């Protein structure tokens, strides 16, 4: 059972233990792609779409 106060680093450690290196690298690449789009494509519509996608994927961002 996971603690209710998970941190980003604890989630990364859990992912490293449960995923293969290829799966982990793919997830990291996907996260980097999201960050790139949000930083360099400051279009509000794109930002809102990515924000909603993160919430739909279960990623808490605020």
UniProtKB/TrEMBL annotation:
The chain crosses the membrane at residues 20-41. Keywords: Membrane, Transmembrane, Transmembrane helix. This is CbtB-domain containing protein. It comes from Natronorubrum halalkaliphilum.
